[in-house]
């Protein structure tokens, strides 16, 4: 059952109007639909409606009952004439919907998730994004249990009914695909505000949460208003309805959903106050609120023709939310975070068995393609166009795209063409970024001729094959580049070098001394870069590059080179090759940066963080989990102990900054916990005391969690005391208890595996809440040394989860296959164990399509 992009056909019948009536109830909801359908094109084919678990109880065409037949996952019936009114009804049980797709129950409330193919679980429908309809929705429910009744668009009327029931009628004037339909019914409390658009339209804003959570919505509301203003200012795009509602739910498969006028959020991306949310949580909320709001244009007003085009809305919207967050905070820090995330999640995907282009060519289950590739690499592809065009021309390309395709279901090709015409770019070769999977490799080398004062930049691109794509044509790779004068410690201006050939050389004159190459500044292209450098160049860049990302990158590379050399040395002296700088030099660079006045604390903390073990693993052909763990730990210890006094000074200085959300105070909190981590790594005798002190005195979650994360990795009495006090303090607050689980399974404590076994049996662990499942298991599988313990028991634990969770929630389960799918990157003993686990999963009777697709591809 593989679906191919090349097979696209428009629908045979379109649904123009939809009228829905719901009699809502947790265990038995009745749905009646009236569909105005139109034959699409000159054909005599039957009407076919997608259907998943909700077969029609009644079905009539123009008032006459008709016989329908089942064809796989569709129902079919014949209609004469060009148009008809189809009426049908279903009966569904939201409280047994553990998949959380379609209409489901969460803590006594009812809500929907329809993207990508959830609407068909409510009623049979032309459930594809190129079918756009105008919706009217009538909701009826018990008034005391469901006092709030919401759907898309605007409320038209509401009132009481007999038997303690009430109703609300909603109408959305904008034609939309079914994946943007939403309804919510429950006992919820609203925080209200308003926004006036630049053309003067008043918009009522509301965020609905469970009673007791209303004190934690202010930041999300602030982010919403800032997003609305930003989209007007930066893209000229205004909101288009009189109401914008947001609802927070605690059982949700993903982050949030951009339903027209009624965004539904995982509560973790709405609820925040200083006592329960970290600065990082605050940023995530701001970013996701913006992301969903921006979808109103990039996604809803212009939607996707088919799901292969998903990156059209997701890549673009991620790019938009990244730029928004950069504007709200620090551009440099935001860029580093985004690149770190891309490298942690997307590069491995691109290098493994599940690699796919940002516009895939085929899929079995579309839910498996809400990937870091489609989202984050998709955003990088948009960013490259923006870089090549410059801000004004990029905006002109976007303007043309929105003007030309407003109200349409468009394709990635439509976007590229609008960008070509509007921005005046030739994107002929660039289209390959949509077609090819895999991370390009770029080699760079600067050659210097002292006699002529010429510096020549040699560039070369290479590709490794990915599944189904053995050979790859050349890509255009835009590299922001500068040549930094060694004496002046400055450059003559940054250039954009676009590498379009297999090999290219560019010469620059007037360099008596060889300059230092600063390339892929700002991470202008999502590539793996290999620069041939003289030793000493990286420390120079760390100290003097004016591009903050390039400084960060130089230090990361310096550390990676050293660690890779240390790991090679474990095989015997002299095994290490290359020109890694000495430990002394690394300590000296760190020492400079700890007190560098040009850095703000947030950037300082970013630069001074060591690459994760998993990221180091990615740099090796065959990952060596123990060696990486040992080498990184010993480098951390050296940096901690040899700079101990400096870390103590920083920690004390930062501890004296009072809590606020100012940039300075946030930076202080970030460097504070980083310094604490190094103090602990130094194994300073008082480290546990210092950490416990930070924990006990904390008046905010950032400091408290920062200290607890350090304690969780220590073998000290204070560890249990702090974990228990944290648990007791926040018992009943699901989002914070999630943190309590994650801190333990993501720690570097020697007994994480045993703790994991206890936590699986903990009374607060449940398989039915995706946040809780991810909180427990995701840090565990990302904890490389633990998950990849040679015994293989980490793999077994994950396999047990997959087998238990799949029958309940295939979509969330399928996300856990990729870690096992990386078996080719491990030694034969581990690889065999990982493959065994994949085989054990595949042998499970009734395995979901979601998990099957990922496992089969991982074994191929
Ligand atoms: N469109 C949503 C967003 O990115 C995510 C929907 C995810 N759907 C899914 N089936 N995984 O904002
Ligand atoms: Zn999105």
Oligomer: single chain
Beta strands, count? 32
List low-pLDDT spans.
none
Q: In DSSP terms, counting alpha (H) and pi (I) runs of 4 or more, how many helices?
A: 28
Largest sheet: 8 strands, mixed
Radius of gyration using CA atoms only: 28 Å
Spell out which ligands are present: arginine, zinc ion
**What is the mean pLDDT?**
98
Adjacency order of strands in the biggest sheet:
6-5-9-3-2-12-15-14
- Helix/strand-derived category reads alpha+beta
Helix content: 40-55%
Q: What would the principal axes of the Cα set say about the shape? A: globular
How much of the sequence is in beta strands?
A: 15-25%
**Termini separation:** 17 Å
Give structural notes:
This protein has 28 helices and 32 strands. It is an alpha+beta fold and 860 residues long. Helix 4 packs across helix 5 (372-389), helix 9 (537-544) packs antiparallel against helix 10 (548-569) and helix 12 (601-607) runs parallel beside helix 16. Strands 6-5-9-3-2-12-15-14 form an 8-stranded mixed β-sheet, with no helix packed on it. Strands 17-18-19-21-20 form a 5-stranded mixed β-sheet, with helices on one face. The two termini are 17 Å apart. It is 41% helix and 22% strand. The radius of gyration is 28 Å and the shape is globular. Residues 115-116, 254, 256-258, 291-292, 314, 367, 370 line the site of arginine. Arginine (ARG) binds next to strand 20 and helix 2. This is Aminopeptidase N. Its cofactor is Zn(2+). Keywords: Aminopeptidase, Hydrolase, Metal-binding, Metalloprotease, Protease, Zinc.
